[in-house]
Amino acid sequence: MEQLFNIDFKNISSSSKKEALERRKNFELFLKTGLPNKKDENWKFSDLNSIISKNFKEITNYDDLRIDEEIELINDFDHNHIILINGVFKSCDISFEEKEKVKIDSLKSLEGLSNQSSNNLQNLNQALSLGGFNLEVQKDYKCKKPIIIYNYFNSNLENKIINNSNQIKLNQNSELILIEYNISEKCKFLKNTFEKIYMNKGSELKTFVIQKTKSNGYFYKNISGSQDYNSTYQKFILSSGLKFNKLEINMDLEKENASCYILSGLSLGKEEHQEIKTRINHMAPNCKSYQKIKNVLENDSKGVYQGKIFVKDNAQKTDAYQLSKALILDDKAEFNAKPELEIYADDVKCSHGSTSGSIDEDAIHYLMTRGIELPMAKKLLINGFINEIFENIPEEKLKKFLEKNIIEQVNAI
Amino acid sequence: MKSEELKNREYKYGFTTDIENFKAPKGLSEETIRFISKIKKEPQWMLDWRLKAFNRLKVLKEPNWQKPKYPKINYQDLYYYSAPKSMKDKPQSLDEVDPKLIETYNKLGIPLNEQKRLSGVAVDAVFDSVSVATTFKGELDKKGIIFCPISEAIQKHPDLVKKYLGSVIPISDHFFATLNSAVFTDGSFVYIPPNTRCPMELSTYFRINASETGQFERTLIIADKGSYVSYLEGCTAPMRDENQLHAANVELIALDDAEIKYSTVQNWYPGDKEGVGGIYNFVTKRGACRGKNSKISWTQVETGSAITWKYPSCILQGDNSVGEFYSIAITNNYQKADTGTKMIHLGKNTKSKIISKGISAGQADNTYRGLVDIGVKAKNSRNYTQCDSLLMGNKCGAHTVPYIKNKNSSSTVEHEATTSKINEDQLFYCNQRGLNQEEAVSLIVNGFCKEVLQQLPMEFAVEAQKLVSISLEGSVG
Q1: How far is A197 from chain B (nearest CA, A)?
Q2: Distance CA A298, CA A30 (A)
Q3: pLDDT exceeds 70 at position B236
Q4: CB A298: neighbour CB atoms within 10 A?
Q5: Which of A78, B259, B369, B371 has the most other CB atoms within 10 Å of its CB?
Q6: Strand, coil or helix: what is B189?
Q7: A344 touches chain B (CB under 8 A)
């Protein structure tokens, strides 16, 4: 591990001596066990250690803070934006919103961020984090337009690692749509992000993650959050195109009537590997969680879904659902699932389903009898398979934009 | 109050039999293994095999990933061999058997004596570690079927044993399987010759009697080409305060066109209402569908034991082979179960089906853990899994941990699971028809389990239905 990671601490700015010491301490902790491997139950289906060792000879930390990239913005719909270049906060524009209602700044201090000491990537993150953004929406304010986070990665990142930490806070009855838009130039790099989400009573957060182009990025992101009464969290994962991506979501439904939705539509191509791992903790009665994971797997791609629903003994009337479906289009492709239930309350409705297989021959036959040729018929069915997750998006323009994005991906098959 | 009475009802099979036991020296050592091998009059190759396992055991660690945790077992504090003393010179007929022993079996309702003809069951009863008597031998002999204690098979049919023993569960498999390989004392051996249909259900009744002994049986069933056999296993154990370990190995081998049906009704002592005592049931059961068109079907009704931890599995090697797993696991009071199956698809057109029903009441914890693995070469394979859990009260837990792996594009895997409580409307309907709460619950639970109970042979199905009701007594109120 020490050979793989060639880290220069001189280039990391720390606000205090204490922080500098902490960073070194965390790094040493990280080196002790290194990157997680398949012996770790959480990494059973995605052996990060072997994936990284196979693809990287040496990893250095990102220290070049000169950033002058111009970024082409999406013009399909009006939006606010935050620009991060190579993980570093560059600028933001929230002119559609009322002043003082939405607060965005760059996050420097790492104090108070989640502490999952058993997760060694957290140690690595705390050792090398460059910060990220801090976003807060004030009480009773409903954002008028979505905020897009342009995550731009340029070619300086070859064989580098970036570590980010972000924080999002929604105060009582506030609303926000947040879109994470990843754009990267051709280079091979690692990204390790930790994000904390706080949702107060009645707040609503809808987040999307989209990948603009195919990328040689190896991503790990850990999102942990807590939800208060009547809050709603929705996450749409559309991040196809990365060499490796593992998204881990831990959500605590702490108070009654909180709900959490996780929806994913991925179409994975050559040498792509994505894992979605969730843990939804139902800690209070009457909460709802809903997960729908759809993967289309091509070539030698690998898709993994590890989902867990935990229901505490007092969380009666819980309604929890998990569904993972995979279309395997090639014999080299692989889909692994571990949909888990851990339930301690009796008056609950918890179920899960998982299927994997090929495209339905009967459906293809039907389309072909209607004069549609085989490749087109396949595309139609694949599109229909993934598009299902967009059903519940009321924002028309945004929905169209997402569908366009998916069609492009499917056409590339 | 009826429910009060029921709560106080004791474990029905909790009697001990006072027979002088003949034990091996305490503790796990090479000496113990040599002692067991010697007393069984085993040939050298068997002893070597055991010692090989023992050497492997020294480097293996006890697994600890399971959900139910238990206090550390002191393997040096156990007896690894215990046989009723009067058995030292084998009895020639049932008359020579200690009458107390016969009495025990009668209490259990095992059809050993006169009843044997009526029920048509050939019983190879394992009392602690030595096979007491084997019935119906003559009839089976005529067909060329071998059904005998494994210790006898080692002497009389060494070629078969050498060829198949450890071929499904290798001696270095995992801690408990290896422990069993080193110290196993007895168990059943079944060989069905080609194109033979075993005319009756074969059955073994296991029973742990002596305290501080572990029960380590080894069962080996071979169904040669085109044959069929149905095997029943039933277990009860007397009441004791300390926890006893049961680590058996069961190996099944089905060759071309053969079918094995293995049914278990497990009713070991579950511990008392406070969770004191009870059996640790850590069993390794694995079947290999070696031949084309072969089939292995596991059915289990797990109502007893303090901790049940087992995954009867099928390795589907032959093309078109079929694996099935039907399970009911009921946990009450402080019982814990972590059970399920593994279906490993290797051959083409292989099929598997998993139906699992878990019921938890009291402070119990019930986990379904299973693996469905479809290999690259297992084209056109199919799996269907359904696991349903029923919870009674909010102090118990029901968990589902399926592992699903699909590595080819022509295979289909389907999995579904639900967790719920007993439907209030159904209860109300039953109450309205004059059934009390206990009866209503028992009826509904039996209905919930029906899909699995149907798979059991007649004689067992009746007993299992009763067990389902008895196990849940005192859990409603």
Answers
A1: 28
A2: 35
A3: no
A4: 20
A5: B369
A6: strand
A7: yes
| Distance in angstroms (rounded) separating the CA atoms of residues A380 and B414 | 23
What's the CA gap between A262 and A289, in Å, rounded? Answer: 8
The angle that helices B175-183 and B44-59 make with each other, rounded to 10 degrees, is 150
Q: Cβ A316–B400 below 8 Å, yes or no? A: no
Most distant CA pair in chain B: distance in Å? Answer: 68
Q: How many CB pairs under 8 A join A and B?
A: 114
Rounding to the nearest 10 degrees, give the CA dihedral for residues B319, B388, A319, A306. -40
Whether pLDDT at B120 is above 60: no
- Mean pLDDT taken over chain A: 88
pLDDT of residue B354: 95
Length of chain B: 477
pLDDT top residue among B210 and B430: B430
Q: Total domain count for chain B?
A: 1
Contacts of A411 (CB under 8 A, 6+ apart): A379
Classify residue B354: in a domain, yes or no. no
Whether A342 and B399 lie within 8 Å, measured CB to CB: yes
**What is the distance in angstroms between the Cα of B470 and the nearest Cα belonging to chain A?**
21
pLDDT tens-digit profile of A265-280? 999 988 999 999 999 9
Interchain pair B409, A329: CB under 8 A: yes
Beta strands in B51-154 (DSSP E): 82-84, 122-127, 130-134, 146-149
User: pLDDT category, B239, cuts 50, 70, 90?
Assistant: low
Identify all chain A residues contacting B417, using CB atoms and an 8 Å cutoff: 339, 341, 351-353
| Residue B375 DSSP code | -
pLDDT, one tens digit per residue, over A114-128 is 556 678 898 888 888
pLDDT at B107 over 70: no
Task: Answer yes or no: do B404 and A351 touch at CB < 8 A.
Answer: no
Q: Strands of A123-212 (E only): list them.
A: 132-137, 147-153, 160-170, 175-184, 188-199, 204-211
Give B389 to chain A, closest Cα distance, Å: 10
Does residue B275 belong to any structural domain of this protein? yes
The model's pLDDT over B12-45, given as tens digits with 9 standing for 90+, comes to 555 555 555 666 677 888 888 998 888 888 999 9
- The chain-wide mean pLDDT, for chain B, equals 82
Question: Taking a C-beta distance cutoff of 8 angstroms, is the pair B267, B234 a contact?
Answer: yes
Average pLDDT in the A272-300 region? 94
Percent with pLDDT over 90 in chain A: 50
Of the candidates B467, B454, B75, the residue with the CA atom closest to the CA atom of residue B267: B467
Chain A residues inside the 8 Å CB shell of B348: none
Closest CA relative to residue A378, chosen from A399, A354, A358: A358
Q: Is residue B388 part of a domain?
A: no
Confidence class for position A395, pLDDT limits 50, 70, 90? confident
**Residue B374, domain member (yes or no):** no
CA distance A328 to chain B (A): 5
Beta-strand relationship, A175-184 and A147-153: parallel
Give residue B353's region: left, alpha or beta (phi > 0; psi -120 to 50): beta
Phi, psi dihedral angles at B55 (to 5 degrees): -65, -40
Select the residue of B400, B409, B416 nearest A331 (Cβ to Cβ): B409
Is ipTM > 0.95 here?
no
Range of the domain at B251: 2-287+296-304+422-471
What burial class does residue B155 get, using C-beta atoms within 10 Å of its C-beta: 0-12 exposed, 13-18 middle, 19+ buried?
Answer: middle
Phi/psi at A21 (nearest 5 deg)?
Answer: -65, -45
Instruction: Please tell me the predicted confidence (pLDDT) of residue A80.
Output: 92
Rounded Cα gap, residues B161 and B40, in angstroms:
15
The CB density around residue B450, as the number of other CB atoms within 10 Å, is 12
Question: How big is the CA angle at A133 (ends A130 and A138), to the nearest 5 degrees?
Answer: 155
Distance CA B302, CA A363 (A): 42
Q: What are phi and psi of A15, to 5 degrees?
A: -75, -25
Flag if A313 and B421 touch (Cβ within 8 Å): no
A319/B contact by beta carbon, under 8 A: no
